[in-house]
Amino acid sequence: MYTIAIHGGAGAVTKQTILEEEDPKFRAGLKAALHKASGILKNNGTAVDAVEAAVKCLEDNPLFNAGKGAVYTKKGIHELDASIMDGSNLQAGAVAGVRNVKNPISFARAVMEKSGHVLLSGKGANDFALKMKVEMESDDYFYTKQRYDQWLKVRHTDFYHLDHITEEMPERKFGTVGAVALDKHGNVAAATSTGGMINKQFGRIGDSPIIGAGVYANNKTCAISCTGHGELFMRAVAAYDVSCLMEYKNLSLHDAMQKVVNEKLKAMHAEGGMIGVDAKGNVSLVFNAQGMHRGSIDAKGVEYVALYGDE
Amino acid sequence: MFTIAIHGGAGTLSKSAMMPEKETAYRQALQKAIEAGKNILEKGGEALDAVEAAVIELENCPLFNAGKGAVFNHKGEHELDASIMCGKNTSGGAVAGVKHIMNPISLAKMVLQKSQHVMLIGDGAEQFAKEQQVELVDQSYFYNEFRYQQWQQIKGEDTFALDHSVEIKNPKMGTVGAVAMDVHGNLAAATSTGGMTNKKWGRVGDTPILGAGTYANNNTCAVSCTGHGEFFIEQVVAYDIHCLMLYKNLSLKDATEYVMLDKLKKLNAEGGLIVVDKNGNHSLVFNSEGMYRAHFNSHVNKIVTAIY
Asked: What are the backbone angles phi and psi of residue A75, rounded to the nearest 5°?
């Protein structure tokens, strides 16, 4: 038995905000990531390998705000955050504010396995990336016309978005990608990656590279990856809260995620969502926004891909 | 009623190795720091202001690895991290990897109060500081002969030390922190550090991470941690105390002892934590030989400082 779930951001994802021709592209991108991970899991691969592969696939897809499709900061550069956690031993790795790294999730994994640390940040982290021979790309690689045009509209304002939120902009969603998986060995893992908020400044870090906030995995309970208003997810320690509700209050995965997303975060006006798997084979995709790019393959092998709230 | 507790790091602090005059200096510094917080609380001030004031005193004292006494990183620089959290509304602020900030805890409080964010890092965080008219200091402000010699001992090696003892083989965890409950019943927590001696690659520990090194919530408690940061991040230590109390109804004592003396000890994760709960009780627990610490409860009306 194995399961996999992925997300590509939550927010005002509706049939009105997503262009008709973009809809199938998002679905194809999610499917490709799911299949990449399920191929690994089917062949007895580990949950860590599967979530890394799925997130890599989403990072390489310019449609999602992570890796190649990362948004621009106020200075017109790309600063990337990512984290990964192995539920079998509670080891974790994360990077924050790194530049020119093609796949931040693979870099986070190198931090987990080879650095002796959990979180590396900024220029110092890039030194470690070079040492680890992590694949680097020039600034041009991260150029996408859509993101650049978005940034041009807001660069002279103090305005920032969690991804692309404004009335004049058609799309409004929190751009983060993530994956959670259970492998045949009974181990769970979680991974999250983002380009952060468009026009962000001051070296702002959201929940994506924060263990317990944007990511968490523990074989005893669950693996969780979040997307949403990062500041509030950090204050709520959202991912670990699900685990605690399961471990200390005996809630099911589904009930714990509902409580955190639709009660606690909602009460804080924290828009977003999360995906989760547990070691028993349950999968849950929960959001309090209008939609969330999401997909899963459950323990029976049933594949599901959706964008909108009513799917 | 109000309560405040502080720590100045945990680790191998054996009585036999401590010079009497040094011990006196540490106790005086702890006394001064807790008084700074207590003075605010007894005038009816906010817990958030009290924990900031106590941590500022500790940051300004060269004996502790935070602010002025921050250790050297691999490049011979000082990189500081801090976080603060308000239990009334669970708002938080944190800075990581700042190099020119005299009191990182005050910058963290500005992030909480004056930015729309929770965590700022590196040059960007200093840009924010400039906009807030925070005076930036030169790296030489943090120079300290003792720390320099300590760094010299290990700088050529690929090793890290979690703190600042002369013998690096006896690492102390250099972090400072404060937790408090004010007369209004509000809780707050604050933590600040210079990180590990000889650290590199922009390593960030648990200190600036809400839920790991710092957490405060009026429903339960306020927590500040010190120790082997990587483990404290992976175990989400500060938030774990909150959850054990809220979801499992553990007492403050049981929750802190379970996390520190059972969970973390089994992982060989050395360190300690200080907690004040919503009823004004305190718990200062560590699994290392010692932890610089002090507490004051208004109903007992006596400052207690301790090391071993």
From this structure: -85, 0
